[in-house]
Amino acid sequence: MAGHGIRAALVAMGVLCPALGWAQAGGEGKPAVLTLEGTRIRQMVACDGRDVSVRGEHVEVLLTGPCGVVRVAGARNVVALAGARALRVAGQHNAAVATGDIGALTIDGRSNAVMAPVRAPDGGVALVELRGIASAARVVLHGPGRIEMRGNSHRVDWSADEGVPEPVVERAGRAHILRHVLPGAAMPAGPRSSAVP
Does the reported pTM lie above 0.70? Predict the structure, then answer.
């Protein structure tokens, strides 16, 4: 049932076709780090606290349950997850959406898009970092946060729970857009629409 909520979020973001079917992976003897690599793969996988690496092109993955560190690299990949200790997206035209907290978020590369709630697991300051060019993030801060924008033409739309202070912001590079938006605002249209054809 968890897959349907995440799948609906991806459809709403415009990065997933409503007709997408999912194949399931997992079972006994699961490796400590799960690697999903290839071209045009569609899979649903239970994280079970493990680290996950998604690499390739046009890989579509639904990660259920809590994850360790999730790494996405390559091009035109789509990852939906319930939550993770950290999410690192690199490459180009990748998209990720999380329905549960991400402890730290790093987006590198070109034209990647992420939508996620962010909260440091230890109650500290959660880092949202964008490097490279023309990536976008829509984050909801559930605790103190720091937003670092390096490179060029990034966009971050952020909101925060009541009582959460404004994030500390550091910018290097040029043409960045940082907006405080109302909770529930849509993902930025530019990079999101180019994330997956």
Answer: yes
